[in-house]
C-alpha cells in the first residue's frame, strides 16, 4: 500500500507526520518526493549514496539539416523552441522532454540528448527503514520527472510512505496519482482550512480515500473538524500544540523516539488507513 502524506501548503507538518509514521512502523519504505526541498533526512540522519541520475531528453538541432520551417517551435507548447528567420533557438530549461519537436521535423534535423535535472539517493546503512529521496538540481523547474524516477524504486510488496511536495501543482498530482491513500495534514486556522480544501479537491480528482491529521491541535478554531464531520472524512490523529514536540522538531529529532505512547498512536493511525484503503479497493 502506498500512502501519500500531503498538505495544501508548506510548513503544515507533513514531513513530521511522514517521518514519525515511518519510524513507528519501521519495516516500511519512506520516499521523500518533496524534491525541491527534501528534508526528511534532517530528522533521519542517514548516510546517503547516489542511486540514479535523472535526465530529461532535450532537442539538439543540426543547422546543416534544418530547413527553418518552424514546425518544431509551433508544436512546442512550453516555448522551449523559438523560430527566427535564420535560426531555431533552443531553451533546454523549458523543455519537458516530450520529443514532439523531433517527430514533426520534416528534415530529421533534431536529435535528443540527455540533460541532467536531478538525482535519486538511498540510505546506505543497514536499517529496518528503507529511505529514498529525490533531489532536483538547483534552478531546475521540472520536479515531476524526478518524482516519477523516484516512484520507480517503490517495492510493491512492501508498504510505502510518500512525503509529497506542498501545494496542489503538477508534482503533487504526480504523487497522488500513484497513491492508495492520502493523509492530509492541516491546521485549524483560516489559511490552513483554505489550503486543505484545495488539497482535498486534488485528492478527489484521483478518487483517493482521504484522512486528516490535525497538527498543532488546540490552535485556531473548529472549522476543519466541522467540515470533516459533515463530509465523513476521518480525523486520523491529533498532534497537539505542544512545546516539547516543537523543541524536538527544532533539534531535528523525531518525537516518536523520545515521547512515550506516540509510536502506538501512529500504528493505530496506520491501521485506520489500511482499513479504509482496503475498503476502497474492495479488499476484505
TrEMBL record:
Name a GO molecular-function annotation: oxidoreductase activity
By its UniProt entry, which PROSITE patterns does this protein fall under? Answer: 4FE4S_FER_1, 4FE4S_FER_2
Which Gene3D superfamilies does the entry link to?
Answer: 3.30.70.20, P-loop containing nucleotide triphosphate hydrolases
Q: Which residues cross the membrane?
A: none
Q: Fetch the InterPro entries from UniProt.
A: 4Fe4S_Fe-S-bd, 4Fe4S_Fe_S_CS, CobQ/CobB/MinD/ParA_Nub-bd_dom, P-loop_NTPase
Where does the record place the 4Fe-4S ferredoxin-type domain?
57-81, 86-115
Among PANTHER family, the record links this protein to: 4FE-4S CLUSTER CONTAINING PARA FAMILY ATPASE PROTEIN
Protein name as it appears in the record: 4Fe-4S ferredoxin-type domain-containing protein
Species of provenance: Methanosarcina acetivorans (strain ATCC 35395 / DSM 2834 / JCM 12185 / C2A)
Amino acid at each position: 500500500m502506498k500512502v501519500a502524506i500531503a498538505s495544501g501548503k508548506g510548513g503544515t507538518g507533513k514531513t513530521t507526520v511522514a517521518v514519525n509514521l515511518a519510524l513507528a512502523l519501521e519495516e516500511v519504505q519512506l520516499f521523500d518526493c518533496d524534491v525541491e526541498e527534501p528534508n526528511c533526512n534532517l530528522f533521519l540522519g542517514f548516510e546517503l549514496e547516489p542511486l540514479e541520475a535523472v535526465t530529461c531528453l532535450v532537442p539538439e538541432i543540426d543547422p546543416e539539416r534544418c530547413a527553418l520551417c518552424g514546425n518544431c517551435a509551433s508544436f512546442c507548447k512550453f516555448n522551449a523552441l523559438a523560430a527566427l528567420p535564420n535560426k531555431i533557438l533552443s531553451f533546454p530549461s523549458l523543455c519537458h522532454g516530450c520529443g514532439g519537436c523531433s517527430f514533426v521535423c520534416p528534415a530529421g534535423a533534431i536529435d535528443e540528448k540527455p540533460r541532467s535535472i536531478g538525482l535519486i539517493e538511498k540510505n546506505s546503512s543497514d536499517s529496518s527503514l528503507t529511505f529514498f529521496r529525490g533531489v532536483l538540481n538547483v534552478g531546475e523547474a521540472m520536479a515531476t520527472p524526478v518524482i516519477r524516477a523516484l516512484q520507480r524504486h517503490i517495492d510493491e510488496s512492501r508498504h510505502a510512505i510518500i512525503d509529497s511536495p506542498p501545494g496542489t501543482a503538477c508534482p503533487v498530482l504526480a504523487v497522488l496519482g500513484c497513491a492508495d491513500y492520502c493523509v492530509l495534514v492541516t491546521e485549524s486556522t483560516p489559511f490552513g482550512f483554505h489550503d486543505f480544501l484545495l488539497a482535498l479537491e486534488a485528492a478527489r480528482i484521483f478518487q483517493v480515500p482521504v484522512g486528516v491529521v490535525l497538527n498543532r491541535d488546540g490552535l485556531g478554531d473548529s472549522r476543519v473538524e466541522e467540515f470533516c464531520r459533515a463530509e465523513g472524512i476521518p480525523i486520523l490523529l491529533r498532534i497537539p500544540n505542544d512545546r516539547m514536540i516543537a523543541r524536538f522538531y527544532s533539534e531535528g529529532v523525531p518525537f516518536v523516539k523520545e515521547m512515550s505512547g506516540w509510536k502506538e498512536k501512529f500504528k493505530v493511525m496506520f491501521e485506520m488507513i489500511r482499513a479504509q484503503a482496503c475498503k476502497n479497493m474492495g479488499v476484505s
